[in-house]
From TrEMBL:
Keywords: Glycosidase, Hydrolase. Residues 247-617 form the Glycosyl hydrolase family 13 catalytic domain. It comes from the Bacteria. One of its GO terms (biological process) is carbohydrate metabolic process. It comes from Mesobacillus selenatarsenatis (strain DSM 18680 / JCM 14380 / FERM P-15431 / SF-1). The keyword Repressor does not apply. This is Glycogen debranching enzyme /Pullulanase. Belongs to the glycosyl hydrolase 13 family. GO terms for molecular function: pullulanase activity. Its EC number is 3.2.1.-, 3.2.1.41.
Length: 716
């Protein structure tokens, strides 16, 4: 891109307001008149205001006509000087959105063997050329595109363009920029170009995952493609790839299941994959050199090539990701995609900014890009075409790849209307598709009542939110590694622990709650972010006996699985996953991030216990009550001395084998004798050593002895 040198600058900041900046070096920044000139236009501007700035004089002028966006105009001053009229803040006005919203479903490439149609939304461009070539072709074609309506540019070529590389050359404010199609569904190596493909050649076996009756039936297990298989003892052949993650029947050196077969054996319902769309941070031609979680999004509608067996073949990554999804479905689990629509890797380099500069990103009151995400840019989801892009992208993955849910990274950056539009669009295909997200309240220039965060959960029905209240109450503050939560023996969190075990819907009084319904609460104590629970335990209590730390870890994980709401596990959590004390491993080497299958083999007893707790949850709807009123009616907490928690689940015969279930939690270092509400013969489903949906022993009477750092589940 060649920079344009101008003696002074003029910007269209509203549909009929032009701002002229005259530097003091140019006639001391003075001009008493300005004219707007263009094709068939030559008229004076009315100077409304004159503002002295540090290095220039700003003139705010009013035009009697609305300059037509997409056409070229010049501004003349009284000295005979002139400059082109650049697109300014008008691009962020409601009028701009109204003028140029395009509702069609044909942006990007529409391919048949006989012809291909290219469409690009670029309303501020004055010219666009398609750059088209076959791989290794030294003489690409440059073909003019035609502007049609609503700022869309189109080109139809009547020939078979399968495997042609393409990009767009866009002229805006007299400057040419080259950009990849934001709607590209296939890419060349490292996302350098879009690629025209035949969608019929990417079809994979369509195997459906079991449908959810309600969101609280889900048990989510989060994993990174590479982490699943890179460990030497993973048993996988194609380590670190889509196909490696899709392998079944893999075993560790001692013959225990690993990978996908192991995850199935746990009993979880959904495998949540860290971002699989194209991201920056790993060279696809040298993927062993670097590691990245994938939160550096570049191209949203195509898989990343670093997990493909052949990143040079545009079809391979698509087919292999579809094969992975089918493999997960074949194991009876759904797939949740981690999607990062809140920011891009580098704003200036993104197709959004190159094609429609200033539109897709939020700016503050001073016109500077906002940074609520902490990575330098915030997607302006409230703008109509940004919202459309997000909805279109979600629906593309849903319809083309048959995923079963979406986890929205930093969802609090996005606006409520966009998330509502996503939910409504997804419902048109299947209402049981899970939508969850991080509803943190972030510092982005969006009115508080429009942010898709936890504070506005009442406006976000059908969307689950990661519950930081649950996380911090049970394990202790994520941001103070030395703070211990309820499960780690801190009874300061006792009352909060009761509330979050009840789905955070407000037992006693609604105002004590966080959510309207339990399906909005994603309960977790560990994820890919921050320290693993095992590392937090070891750092915060370095002198504690390892056996005690394991009991505390087991108790905390069990509380996740027995709480009302949607449980979420970080892969390896069930066998004390460690990242060697590293709290942000987003680009740490495999040795830090991989699932250590040796560690799993060494902690089979804990894995079996957690499997038992999962089975208890799945076998008893009482732990999956879908309605807040049912929780208030059927979940009753006992009055016990601190730090104990005890509750009953009653009136449950119609939804399971048992008429009543009792749960007792003892996070202390001492045995605790608890008196039961009734003298009866109780079936034991879980104690300090074992957990199973099938009773493994019975107790008689009205007392039960709770071991330190443990829970008890009784049923009759």
């Amino acid at each position: 891109m060649i920079a344009i040198e101008r003696e002074f600058n003029a910007y269209l900041d509203q549909v009929n307001v032009i701002t002229v900046l005259l530097p003091y070096s140019y006639f001391e920044g003075t001009s008493n008149e300005f004219r707007l000139k263009g094709e068939g236009v030559d008229l004076p501007l009315a100077i409304q205001e004159k503002v002295l700035l540090e290095d220039a004089v700003k003139y705010i002028c009013l035009s009697n006509i609305r300059p037509e966006i997409g056409k070229t105009y010049v501004i003349l001053d009284e000295h005979g000087g002139q400059t082109d009229l650049q697109i300014g803040a008008v691009i962020r006005t409601e009028e701009f959105d109204s003028l140029f919203f395009y509702g069609g479903d044909d942006l990007g490439v529409s391919y048949t063997p006989e012809k291909t149609i290219f469409k690009l939304w670029a309303p501020t461009a004055t010219k666009i050329k398609l750059r088209l070539f076959m791989e290794d072709d030294q003489n690409p074609e440059l073909i003019d595109m035609t502007r049609i309506d609503k700022g869309v540019w189109s080109l139809e070529l009547a020939r078979n363009l399968g495997l042609y590389r393409y990009s767009f050359l866009v002229c805006i404010n007299l400057e040419w920029r080259e950009a990849v199609d934001p709607y590209a569904t296939a890419l060349s190596v490292n996302g350098e170009y879009g690629v025209v493909i035949d969608p019929a050649k990417t079809k994979a076996a369509e195997i459906d995952a079991p449908k959810l009756k309600q969101p609280v039936d889900a048990i989510i297990y989060e994993a990174h493609i590479r982490d699943l298989t890179m460990h030497p003892n993973s048993g996988a052949v194609r380590k670190g790839t889509y196909l490696g993650a899709a392998e079944t029947g893999t075993k560790s050196a001692i013959g225990m299941e690993t990978g996908l077969s192991y995850i199935k054996s746990l009993g979880v319902t959904h495998l949540e994959l860290l971002p699989v769309n194209d991201f920056e941070g790993v060279n696809e031609l040298d993927r062993a050199r670097d590691y990245n979680w994938g939160y550096n999004p570049v191209h949203y509608n195509a898989p990343d090539g670093s997990y493909a067996s052949d990143p040079g073949d545009p079809y391979t990554r698509i087919i292999e990701l579809k094969q992975l999804i089918s493999a997960i479905h074949s194991q009876g689990m759904g797939v949740i995609m981690d999607v990062v629509y809140n920011h891009v890797y580098i704003r200036e380099d993104s197709p959004f900014e190159k094609i429609v500069p200033g539109y897709f990103f939020r700016h503050d009151a001073h016109g500077l890009p906002s940074n609520g995400t902490g990575v330098g840019n915030d997607i302006a989801s409230e703008r109509l075409m940004a919202r459309k892009y997000i909805v279109d992208s979600v629906m593309y993955w849903l319809n083309e790849y048959h995923v079963d849910g979406f986890r929205f990274d930093l969802m609090g950056i996005l606006d409520i209307d966009t998330m509502t539009a996503v939910r409504e669009a997804v419902n048109s295909v299947s209402p049981d598709i899970l939508i969850i997200g991080e509803g943190w309240d972030l510092n982005t220039p969006l009115p508080p009542d429009r942010k898709a965060n936890i504070s506005n959960q009442a406006k976000l029905q059908g969307i689950g939110q990661f519950n930081d209240w649950f996380r911090d109450s049970i394990k202790g503050s994520t941001f103070n590694i030395y703070d211990k939560g309820y499960a780690l023996g801190n009874d300061r969190y006792l009352e909060a622990a009761k509330q979050v075990m009840a789905g955070s819907i407000g037992i006693g009084k609604r105002k004590h709650g966080l959510f309207l319904q339990p399906g909005q609460s994603v309960n977790y104590i560990e994820s890919h972010d921050n320290h693993t629970l095992w590392d937090k335990l070891n750092i915060s209590d370095p002198d504690q006996d390892e056996a005690i730390l394991k009991k505390q870890h087991r108790l905390a994980t069990s509380m996740v699985l027995l709480a009302q709401g949607i449980p979420f596990l970080h892969s390896g959590q069930e066998f004390f996953r460690s990242k060697k004390g590293i709290g942000n491993s987003y680009r740490s080497p495999d040795e830090i991030n991989w699932l250590d299958w040796d560690l799993r083999d060494a902690n089979v007893d804990n894995v079996q216990y957690i499997k038992g707790i999962i089975d208890i949850r799945k076998s008893n709807e009482a732990f999956r009550l879908p309605d807040s009123e049912k929780i208030r009616r059927q979940m009753e907490f006992f009055s016990l001395p601190a730090p104990l928690i005890g509750f009953s689940l009653k009136e449950i015969k119609q939804s399971g084998h048992w008429g009543k279930i009792l749960v007792f939690i003892n996070p202390s270092m001492d045995q605790q004798l608890v008196e039961l509400t009734e003298d009866a013969r109780w079936s034991v489903l879980a104690d300090h050593e074992k957990a199973s949906a099938q009773p493994f022993r019975h107790i008689e009477g009205n007392k039960v002895l709770l071991e330190p750092c443990s829970l008890f589940v009784l049923a009759k």
